[in-house]
TrEMBL record:
EC code(s) of this entry: 3.1.3.3
Gene Ontology biological process: L-serine biosynthetic process
Designated name of the protein: phosphoserine phosphatase
Lineage top rank: taxon: Bacteria
Pathway annotation from the record: Amino-acid biosynthesis; L-serine biosynthesis; L-serine from 3-phospho-D-glycerate: step 3/3
Domain ACT: 362-431
Top EC category: hydrolase
């Protein structure tokens, strides 16, 4: 008999990018003369509780007193929160649909704003555990239900003790109350979720740090909207690089390291390199960078051995005309290539513009340009019963660049077969 898995997910700063009560305060105190001072107090109470420095009960009571909120403010908050769902949760809506019975939202927040936000993601109302507000006859929020265990210190522990879930229970969250579940022994593993905020006191105690929900799905071998978490894609930035270039790469989710030189310790693991205008890569190191997918150069790529890059399947983007906008243009080309496989305006690859994929995985096969390769590729797809959603091919004198979109569920042996085609230069699954 298969052991059932349960996924306990926090709401504030986990399922959503923000702390809901902090956001409600910004709405309810919009015209208050002491707005900034009160907002700071509410934020401090939130952080103290999340770091385990103040009991959750004290923190919650203090925040409710300071809110001065009503039902109209609550409606505005819900609208705001629906736009603030964490990106990695949003793109994995299909996971929640398939695992609706196993996903539980357990939060010290409030059902009144949590339910309308998470219901869109197929999470059942009966699987949402949170506090509830108390309002007066005018709709003013005056208190909360003190009988709810989630309003108390250690509330999540008390709740799960009463639920007696049988199976493997995994916890995902950003705060101390989430870690308490691991400390109590009620969950098998605690995953510190850091897509929105990383609290050192929590990260240091976690079984695993997960910078995105994609990472959680990946390490637990669960179906994901993308095949490889972006936080595992190493992007090395070398030399004098504008801050806007670095922030673009970080914002897209890549693991960015800014260095003055191409350090030896990164050669084997780097996936992306962005070079300053006067930087170059030693050919010997380039040839050992087997995971390298793309190079962006803020100057002219003549300092690179383009023939070697092409032979290794590395897509290069540069700035031959000294365009002042290259600090955003070149990183964007790299991002587009990593996200869609687009090689538009590459200096060494066939130019191919591609649409984003929906509910499918994109396979990139770079090979020597000789007759019959596409026939071999499609024979392998047929042998593995693969449903092809879309296919694109561009060639130049040296290489063929084949893109195939397939349904997200497939036998991983497919990859091995594609890599074994004799003329293969590089193969990868997006991401």
């Amino acid at each position: 008999m298969t052991t059932k898995n349960y996924y306990i997910i926090d709401f504030d700063s986990t399922f959503t990018q923000v702390e809901a009560l902090d956001e409600m305060a910004k709405i309810s105190l919009k015209n208050h003369p002491q707005k900034e001072e009160i907002l700071k107090q509410i934020e401090d109470y939130t952080n103290l509780a999340m770091e385990g420095k103040l009991s959750f009960t004290e923190s919650l009571a203090a925040r409710i007193r300071l809110l001065n909120a009503n039902q109209d403010h609550l409606k505005q908050l819900i609208t705001r929160l629906k736009k603030k769902v964490s990106a990695s949760f949003s793109r994995n809506a299909e996971f929640f649909k398939k695992h609706a019975d196993e996903v539980l939202i357990v939060s010290g927040g409030f059902k009144e704003f949590i339910t309308p936000v998470v219901s869109k993601y197929h999470i059942k109302k009966e699987n949402i555990y949170a506090n509830t507000f108390v309002t007066d006859e005018t709709g003013q929020i005056i208190d909360y239900d003190h009988n709810n265990p989630l309003s108390e210190e250690g509330g999540k522990v008390k709740l799960l003790q009463g639920m007696k879930l049988e199976g493997n229970v995994f916890g995902i969250g950003d705060g101390y109350s989430d870690f308490q579940l691991r400390e109590s022994g009620l969950i098998k593993k605690f995953f510190a979720f850091t897509e929105n905020i990383a609290r050192d006191s929590i990260v240091s105690r976690a079984d695993h740090v997960t910078p995105s929900f994609d990472e959680f799905l990946y390490v637990n071998n669960l179906p994901s909207a993308i095949s490889y978490p972006k936080n595992r894609i190493l992007c090395l930035v070398i030399g004098d690089i504008p801050e806007i270039s670095i922030s673009m790469l970080k914002k897209d989710g890549f693991s960015v390291r800014h260095k003055t030189t191409f350090e030896e310790k990164y050669v084997a693991d780097v996936h992306m390199v962005l070079l300053g205008a006067d930087e170059k890569i030693d050919l010997e190191k380039l040839k050992r960078a087997n995971k390298l997918k793309t190079i962006g150069h803020l100057g002219k790529a003549k300092s690179l051995d383009l023939t070697a890059c092409t032979e290794m399947g590395i897509v290069v983007f540069d700035n031959p005309r000294n365009n002042p906008r290259c600090s955003t243009f070149i990183p964007q080309r790299m991002i587009d290539f990593m996200n869609t496989g687009a090689t538009y305006l590459s200096v060494n690859f066939p130019n191919l513009q591609l649409p984003r994929m929906e509910k499918s995985h994109r396979l990139i096969h770079i090979h020597q340009n000789i007759p019959g390769i596409m026939a071999q590729i499609n024979t392998i797809f047929a042998a593995h019963d693969i449903n092809i959603v879309g296919q694109f091919l561009m060639t130049n004198a040296q290489i063929g660049y084949a893109i195939t979109d397939i349904n997200a569920e497939y036998d991983k042996e497919l990859f091995k077969s594609l890599k074994q085609i004799e003329q293969t230069i590089k193969f990868r699954v997006l991401y």
